Amino acid sequence: MRIEDELFNNIKNSDELTPSYEFVQQTRRKLNKEAEKYSRKKQTKKYSFYLVGTLSSLLLFSWIAFFGGFQYLTKSAKEMNTTLQTNQSSLMNSNQNTPIEIFIYHTHNTESFTPLLNIQDPAQAIHEEKNITLVGLQLVKALERRNIPALQDTTNIQQILKEKELSYSHSYTISRNIMEEALQQHKEIKLMIDLHRSAQKRSMTTTKVNGKDTAKITFVVSKLSKNYKENRKIAELLHQKLEKHYPTVSTGVWIKEGNETENTYNQDVFENTLLINLGGVENTLEEESRSVELLANVIKEVVEESK
User: Fold this and answer.
1) Among the CATH numbers 3.40.50.150, 3.40.630.40, 1.10.10.10, 3.90.1150.10, which is that of 90-306?
2) Model-level pTM?
3) What are the domain boundaries of the chain?
4) What is the DSSP code (8-state) at residue 16?
5) Membrane spanning segments where (predicted)?
6) 243: Cβ contacts below 8 Å, ≥ 6 apart
7) Which of 216, 227, 229, 283 could be disulfide-bonded to 271 (CB atoms 3.0-4.6 Å)?
């Protein structure tokens, strides 16, 4: 230990070392060379980055301009938007935590009304936003005011058909998927309603209740459905209650025979499923709303009686 201490003291107390001029110059040259190498590498990476970016931009532009890229991007964006609408924003009810008893959806969601669109031609009464879904929303609110938890699906089924290049007849294929998903998520559903409006003239779809014009209601049941008896039973029950409390509002239960159509209207998916035509193409929203309140009243009666 003494030897090491003496050595340390000698180094500590020695004169300051001064490097030779030649050593300093050699060291400077080496540092300069290393700095030049580093700079060249940095410049090469920078130019490579710019080159790759430029080439990628040119390829992307060529794909969009000459190889159908724009159409692909447009289609993909629309499909993504449709998917988002279907999966995120299509289900509407005020209380997400309440068990749902009534599920309302719209297979022909763009069905609209000539007064609402301020047009004369019933064949043109089609609209992406101003349509039968507004009536469905009123029905949801009317039911919830009566303490009947309801859920409305507002999926733009007609837009999905366009995106997938499917015909109008495939509407029920899309709505079937919606029904099945709803039943998986809400096991407590008691009644499913596919809400439409009729294409008949105003004189056939309008009556008076308490002196006010009110849209008529028609229940449609497919005889081809395996749930035909159950669906007909619930339809006739609602019709009878409407007839009892508000005569002339219900036009009755329309049975679709096998020789008329091969469409079950998806009524085979769930035993209490109804297709309801609420009013017609020439009815106003006010007339639809009056009918909605009456329908909500009898639905409440049926739900309470089933408990």
Assistant:
1) 3.40.630.40
2) 0.70
3) 1-67, 90-306
4) P
5) 47-73
6) 249, 250
7) 227
